[in-house]
Write a structure and sequence with these properties.
With about 725 residues, the protein is an alpha+beta fold. It folds into 4 domains: about 160 residues, Immunoglobulin-like (Sandwich), CATH 2.60.40.1250; about 90 residues, Immunoglobulin-like (Sandwich); about 280 residues, no CATH class; about 120 residues, 3-Layer(aba) Sandwich (Glutaredoxin), CATH 3.40.30. Helices cover about 45% and strands about 20% of the residues.
């Protein structure tokens, strides 16, 4: 019995000591991982060491800034430290706006590090020391979950033994990179000579900031709650020497505050801590702003029109051009006086389709969604229905069934109507299949347009639509040019069947995109859709012009729609991880892009090349095969020690959308070369060749040049 009691006593002692043994500098909690980051763990008496509290968050979840916004609370840390050792308060990098329904939070998604410093007094006892931290946080998405953890960090206090920075004995380059990245995101004081004042207007607050140059972009994060209406838009008015920012006041604010404190974020990632005093707003809008805006708009509209013209050459649009060309050959010798009407109706179909897409995109963004151009190709339902539509069209072109040549002039069931309806819906189909490609000149135009007021956005996209419609419209406006077309004849049946080849090729591409992004189960559902459509086509071909066979085909189409809506439940995250683009990235020279990966590599002194791509973007795939995967290009990347990151946008990813927006783009492909010491990346053209890439890499400064530049600065 005594021996049994002894065993129980030992087990109890071990259980009590277990937590102390298990103490660690990191912990996994719901939806995040928290860690104490100490690049240097050996500190001399009288010295200090940089450190940080690091959060790695699951997608969609966020933690908070020191002013959480409409709801939430920031992370907190309580220390238990040995005598002679102290820790400073957490420092907060500049936050981002995190919309949550009608509310607006200020916080951080994906990852964040809060820097702090550890000071060791000269009288501190030398030897090992344990720093104990009790960390509390609130992590939110649709719901908020409080969390806490006890973390410990072992350090060594050694007199005069502090290792040099970068030494493997005392520092971690990865941890130091996290610290450096966070330090770059900390707001600083306004530059010398700059000033900020605010004026209370009763309905809101006007903030005037003079930086010495014209500012066009700004976002203000108030340090105090109940001062600014957080969800309200902030209107920026550029001035000759800065900007004026109009802020809507919080409903509880009844008098002017003593000062307006917070963080002001300007273009280029400049973050300033300001404490504006009350004053009189004296600046006015810069007189040249309207002229500058008009010139920029004209240039962007021109780029959009040229991009629309070149979009006709993109492989995405080839099947539709084949279909429309066949219809034009058929009608080129018949009723030429109606050709102009068909051209105008075709153009109307394109313009109206662009307007609907842009209206949907702006509406969803206003509701809080983070979307970019081509967003519909990130939906498994859309991919399934589009692949089914083109597969059914291909069956008709190949000769399985016949519902009139008017169908071949449209490309879908809606376009089975004769006359102008066929031309209209051909324009619709052209827009639908063209949106995944961002032709040259289109990237700048789209990025500019989506950041402007709605009227400018629609003007730019109207120019893009007119560019896409221009070749066919010009041909119909000059009927005499149709003499260049061959005469109708028996060869047209052969051509119609040949047109089915690029249509089926497009179907294969859509199936590949669906399988790559959403897994084998989604592909199996798509193949079932093809089987149903083939059965429906057989009924139409075996019993043509029979009402009951048409009814059967319509019922089969209803089944196709049902299967399409079932696809998202099959597209599980596990299937996507197993067969998606991330796995392909991991097995190659490319690494998966994350929001902090670029800054970590730059902090380590390495240049970074980011490929913003998507499986549904044919231009992206062509560039990868023609340029980015060529042996000489990969060898050049290796010779310049370039870190290769792939930002795959095949599935909707808010972080990638935000990164594209920061680059002034809203679609792919985009190629960005980041160099240490440069504030902005160098953007490569959207059509690549090996020579373009190697020429860009040749401009990377050598190690000696970088060292000389650093000494000169």
């Amino acid at each position: 019995m005594r021996r049994l009691l002894l065993i129980f006593g030992m087990l109890f002692t071990l259980a009590a000591a277990g937590p102390a043994w298990a103490a660690s500098n990191s912990a996994d909690a719901q939806h995040l991982r928290v860690q104490l980051v100490f690049p240097q763990t050996q500190i001399a008496p009288g010295a200090s060491a940089e450190a940080g509290l690091y959060f790695k968050l699951e997608p969609g979840w966020h933690v908070y800034w020191k002013n959480a916004g409409d709801a939430g609370e920031p992370p907190k840390i309580q220390w238990t430290l040995p005598a002679g050792i102290t820790a400073t308060a957490l420092e907060f990098p500049a936050p981002t706006r995190v919309p949550l329904g009608p509310l607006m939070d200020y916080g951080y998604e994906h990852e964040v590090l809060f820097p702090f410093a550890v000071h060791v007094a000269p009288s501190a006892k030398a030897g090992p020391a344990v720093l104990h931290a009790h960390v509390h946080w609130l992590v939110c998405r649709d719901v908020c979950i409080p969390g806490n953890a006890d973390l410990e960090q072992n350090v060594t206090v050694g007199k005069g033994s502090t290792a040099a920075p970068g030494s493997s004995a005392s520092t971690s380059s990865f941890d130091q990179g996290l610290i450096n990245q966070a330090r770059q995101q900390l707001p600083t004081a306004l530059p010398a000579g700059a000033q900020a004042v605010f004026q209370y207007t009763g309905a809101g607050l006007r903030l005037q900031v003079d930086t010495g140059k014209r500012e066009t972009k700004a976002e203000f994060f108030p340090a105090d709650q109940n001062v600014v209406d957080n969800p309200a838009p902030q209107k920026v008015t550029p001035t000759a020497t800065g900007l004026i920012l109009d802020l809507k006041k919080d409903s509880s604010l009844t008098a002017a505050p003593d000062k307006l404190s917070g963080v002001l974020e300007l273009s280029g990632g400049r973050n300033y801590e300001i404490a504006a005093a009350p004053g009189t707003i004296t600046a006015t809008a810069a007189p040249e702003s309207k002229a500058v805006a008009g010139t920029a708009l004209a240039r962007i509209v021109g780029f959009a029109f040229l991009g629309g013209l070149l979009l006709n050459l993109m492989p995405c649009v080839f099947p539709v051009l084949f279909i429309k060309g066949l219809a034009l050959v058929q009608s080129g010798r018949e009723e030429r006086h109606k050709l102009r009407g068909h051209g105008l109706v075709y153009t109307a179909g394109i313009v109206l389709s662009f307007w609907l897409l842009v209206a949907a995109l702006l509406g969803l963004r206003a509701a809080g969604s983070t979307l970019g151009w081509g967003f519909q190709f990130q939906s498994p339902i859309f991919l399934t229905l589009m692949a089914g539509l083109l597969f059914f069209l291909g069956l008709s072109l190949a000769g399985q069934f016949e519902i009139g040549l008017s169908l071949t002039g449209t490309g879908g069931g809606l376009a089975a109507k004769k006359g102008y309806a066929g031309s209209f819906f051909t324009g619709v189909l052209a827009v639908v299949v063209a949106t995944p490609c961002t032709a040259p000149f289109m990237g700048v135009a789209i990025g500019y347009a989506l950041a402007q007021p709605a009227a400018i956005t629609f003007a730019v996209f109207t120019a893009l639509a007119l560019g896409l419609a221009a070749p066919y419209l010009a041909l119909t406006m000059q009927p005499a040019w149709t003499r260049l077309l061959p005469k109708p004849g028996a060869w047209m049946e052969i051509l119609r069947q040949a047109v089915s080849v690029p249509v089926f090729a497009t179907v294969i591409w859509l199936a590949w995109v669906l399988a790559q992004a959403y897994g084998a189960a989604a592909l199996a559902a798509l193949l079932s859709v093809f089987l149903l459509l083939a059965i429906g086509g057989w009924f139409l071909g075996r019993w043509p012009a029979r009402r009951w066979s048409t009814v059967v085909a319509v019922l089969i189409w209803a089944g196709v729609v049902g299967v399409a809506y079932y696809v998202p439940s099959l597209a599980t995250a596990q299937a996507a991880m197993a067969s998606g683009p991330t796995a392909a990235v991991a097995s190659s020279a490319w690494q998966a892009w994350t929001p902090g990966a670029v800054q970590r590599s730059l902090a380590a002194g390495d240049p970074v090349f980011v490929d913003f791509t998507a499986g549904w973007c044919l231009s992206c795939q062509v560039n990868e095969r023609v340029a980015l995967t060529q042996p000489e290009v990969l060898q050049d990347f290796k010779a310049h020690k370039v870190v290769l990151l792939k930002a795959d946008w095949t599935r909707q990813d808010p972080a990638i959308t935000q990164a594209l927006t920061a680059l002034g783009r809203s679609g792919v492909p985009v190629y960005a070369l980041y160099l240490p010491g440069e504030n902005s990346p160098r953007l490569l053209p959207q059509v690549l060749t090996p020579g373009i890439v190697t020429a860009a890499l040749a401009q990377i400064p050598t190690a000696g040049a970088q060292s000389a530049s650093a000494q000169g600065n």
